[in-house]
Amino acid sequence: MHKPTRRTLLRAIGTAAGSAAVYRTMDALGLLGPGAAHAAALDLPPGSGEGGRVVILGAGLSGLAAAWEMSRAGWRCTVLEASGRPGGRNLTVRGGDVLTERGMRQEVCFDREDHLYANLGPARIPYHHRTVLGYCKAFGIDLEVFTNDNRAAFFHNRERFGGRPVAGRRVLTDMRGYVAELLAKAVNRGALDEELTADDKESVRAMLKSFGGLKDDLSYAGTNRAGYGGSEIHAGMAAGEVEDSLDFGELLGADFWQYKLHFSHFLNQNPTLFQPVGGMDAIPRAFAERVGRLVQYGSVVEQIRRRGDGVRIVWRGPDGAERETLADYAICTIPAPVLKDIPNDFSPETRAALGSLEFVEAVKVAFQAKRRFWEEDAAIYGGISWTDNDITQIWYPCNGYHRPKGVLVGAYIWSRKPGLRYSAMSGPERLRAALAEGAPLHPGYAGEMECGISRAWLNVPFQKGGWPRRNPDAAAALRRGDGPFHFAGDQVTALPGWQEGALLAAHAAAGAIHGHFTAR
Predict the structure, then answer these.
(1) pTM of the predicted model as reported, rounded to 2 decimal places
(2) Which of 20, 58, 115, 159 would you call most buried, defined as having the most Cβ atoms within 10 angstroms of its Cβ?
(3) What's the pLDDT at 227?
(4) How far apart are CA 339 and CA 89, in angstroms?
């Protein structure tokens, strides 16, 4: 009886459990290089893909990364991209650019200076997204800190605090103080006697006093952590009056505590976060510099078919002529809302998974301001203000500090109803609506702006949405692959909406295909 080889083992695993299992097995056996799941490069052995052909559908980050990694291993790669640019949802706009949506054309009106741009797709990279950061390091992409959480920025609820915005430092300080006081009272009344020893209770009291800024009697009456009243936030030459604490009932009645207060505690929102200097599109541009010769832009996929053990892709080029590409495998990175409507030979299970992925109605609106009023008037340098108006957030730029002008994101929407409302508007209507909804946070807001631009991803023809809402079953089904068809993009991962997910999916698909190919 012959001893089974690695190739036999991989072939058997692929037959029984699918391509994702092959990839995991190759990783466990050390065939993908050290730390492949978290490295910048997949490190397929040079020349190991010679003679293999793969067609990659879509030149977003996932498709570009798959082309880069596989072509370095000797694979013959063809990338078909329907639009005229690389990057997919990674979109940075600058003065002179033109944006098109369904039935709409917008010209980007920003001045042509290096700091005046808007990231209308992904805009931040968490410190633990090691694959994205690894590519940035490998490709020489300079990074700067992205400020996510800024205590000088505002929380705004129309029904609370007289409809006025409140500085984040006050909301966070007072909420912490009130909660600490409540817990201290519970300890003093013996409510936690079964859980705490006498020594524990003393330690807890001391901790709560420090944590919440409580008085000696463990009551909360405000603290200088929230700042001082008057014209200066800090104490200055002589300490002023500490800001009055906010009413606890008002804090509870506002929506801040539901998730906005602890937004930066979510793992993917933890500091430190980064952004590429000059715009997020530095990442797809760096890939395109390396694999641009493999990408055919303006190429709309019309059929995805099987051909023996391989694939046949029918597509229409920018000249309108129909063509076909034959390959051993296909990596499909096209967003599910688009992919599901392309005639295909996918299995019923794959079709069901694609049909069940629902994409977010994401919208961003960005404005160029005449002056950096958020810095000059409110000492806000980067970060995010929150409102219960449909615009949801205002983002302040983390670059160009103290320059004469700046570009801020005046709306970032990802909830269904507000997203649908803004997606149904014309470009000028979106700008007017976003200005009106941002006005309560900054006096004279509309008058400060010179011009604006917007993007409703639901209306973008080859996107039809921002990113998938979580659907673990559908993502898992697509990760298993479907014969010669493999699927990538953030839509097949537990990181929907993040570039890290797109890159990890590219590695998984490329690794699985490579495992099948070398096991033949």
Answers:
(1) 0.91
(2) 58
(3) 92
(4) 15
